[in-house]
Design goal:
With about 250 residues, the protein is of the alpha/beta class. The chain has helices at about 1-15, 15-20, 35-40, 75-80, 115-125, 145-160, 170, 175-180, 200-210, 215-230; strands at about 25, 45-50, 65-70, 85-90, 100-110, 130-140, 185-195, 235-250. The chain has a single domain (about 1-145, about 165-195, about 240-250), classed as Vaccinia Virus protein VP39 (Rossmann fold), CATH 3.40.50.150. The protein binds S-adenosylmethionine (SAM).
């Protein structure tokens, strides 16, 4: 419950912060995590963007029937300002959609916080057509380069502890959870992204994007100070990401 309250307040105050950070992350070829998610989106007319936030994926899907769903009014307002439509305010665990009504569910950087995860996955399977696809990204701990370990370790020390999400443990057993929901895991990959810290603004944006429930404000301030120091060295913060592709079996 504490996470629910935290997420409501966080996204109320910092709408679109995820998009602002992820759209500035790059892999070896210069692509960002949204590009990587979209690469795995199969053809299909109807796409549900679950926990869409400010709807950064909307424009790339202009030729599909699109529906964005999120619980945050502030995020949905940001999505609307960016031209996304239609949008619905709803919880991922109780989707206002008919069974078998979408071909693809995309979910960028949210499965780690959508609870209870088994109910969310069951809802995803319910609204997908048989054979329909779930394509999702979540933050991960690897891959990291040797220098990344030092940078991430320094950041965690500055913040006063590790970053954790409510579904961390569940995501370690994802294949079983998917099967229980009527989905089959068909792709599970990890990729390293880097977020360039080239200015104090870059540092502040990254610090603001971190979920820090239960931490005092001094935690984020210390993290921001550390990131600002890195920005004077033109450093890069590592952002390892896991991409999951699953299909509805029934
Ligand atoms: C890290 S942001 C990701 C936003 C967007 N998908 C992106 O990648 O930029 C997580 C999003 O999940 C939404 N969210 C959190 N709990 C939710 C729930 N139970 N149902 C639907 N959306 C939820 C938040 O409001 C927020 O917009």
């Amino acid at each position: 419950m504490a996470w629910h309250r935290y997420l409501k307040q966080f996204h109320g105050e910092h709408a679109a912060i995820t998009e602002q950070v992820l759209s500035r992350c790059a892999d070896r070829d210069g692509g960002n995590p949204y590009d990587w998610l979209l690469e795995a989106v199969p053809p299909g007319a109807r796409v549900l963007d679950l926990a869409c936030g400010s709807a950064p994926l909307r424009h790339a899907l202009h030729d599909r029937r699109y529906l964005g769903v999120d619980t945050s009014p502030a995020e949905l307002a940001a999505a609307q300002r960016a031209g996304a439509a239609p949008l619905v305010r709803a919880d991922a665990s109780a989707l206002p959609l008919a069974p078998g009504s979408v071909d693809v569910v995309i979910c960028s950087m949210a499965l780690m916080i959508l609870t209870p995860l088994h109910r969310v996955l069951t809802e995803i399977a319910r609204v997908l057509v048989p054979g329909g696809a779930l394509v999702a990204t979540v933050p991960d701990r690897r891959p990291l380069r040797p220098l990344d370990l030092a940078i991430a370790g320094g950041l965690l020390a500055a913040l006063g502890g590790g970053l954790g999400y409510p579904n961390d443990r569940a995501l370690r057993h994802l294949p079983d959870l998917l099967v229980q929901a009527g989905l089959r895991l068909d792709g599970d990959e990890r990729r390293r992204y880097g977020y360039r810290l080239w200015s104090a603004a870059d540092a502040d944006r990254f610090a603001l994007s971190l979920y820090l429930p239960g931490r005092p404000p001094s935690s984020r301030r210390r993290g921001r100070g550390y990131l600002r120091a890195l920005s004077r060295l033109n450093a890069e913060a590592p952002v390892p990401i896991r991409r999951i592709v699953a299909h509805r079996t029934g």
